[in-house]
Amino acid sequence: MTKTILTVDDSPSMRMLLRSALTERGYDVAEAEDGVAALEWLDSNAPNLVITDINMPRMDGFGLIEQLRARSRFRDMPILVLTTESSDEKKARARQAGATGWIVKPFDPEKLASAIRRVSH
Amino acid sequence: MIGAPEAASAARRVNVLQGTTFVTDDPGIVLTTILGSCIACCLHDPRARVGGMNHFLLSEPRHGRIGLDGEAERYGVYAMELLINEMLKKGASRSTMRAHLYGGANLHAGMHAIGTENSRFARAFLAKDGIALSQANVGGDTPRRVEFRAARGQVRCRVVGSDAPIDETKATSAPRSSGDVELF
Question: Are residues B145 and B158 in contact, defined by beta-carbon separation less than 8 angstroms?
Answer without folding.
Answer: yes
